[in-house]
Amino acid sequence: VQLQASGGGLVQAGGSLRLSCAISGNIESINDMTWYRQPPGKERELAAHISNSGRTFSVGSMKGRFTMSRDNAKNTVYLQMSSLKPEDTAMYYCNARAFGGGDGSYYYNEYWGQGTEVTVSS
Hints:
122 residues; mainly beta; seven-stranded mixed β-sheet
C-alpha cells in the first residue's frame, strides 16, 4: 500500500482547506484510515479516522471542524478542514492499517504517507 498526501498550504485563520490522500497498491487489504497531525515541536496526534464501514470521527478541538471522507471510485480519502486556527498549523499525515487473521495466525501492517504541511496564519 502506498499513500500520497497532498493539499496542504498556507491559509488565513477562519479559512478552509481540503487535504487528499491517494491510495494505491493492495487497497482491498486496508481496514481503516486515519489522519494524524504533528504541530511544530509537538507529538503526533490523531486528527480524524474512518473505518471500513465508513464510520468517521474527529477528535478534540478538531471535532465539528474537521471531516474525514473517502471516495472509493478515486481511491482517495480526504480531510476537510474548516474554521482553521493558527494552532492547526502542523504536518498532516495519512495512515492506513491492514490487519486480520484467525486460527492463531494474525497480521498487522501500517502504512504512512509522506505528509503535507498546513500553515494557518493569524
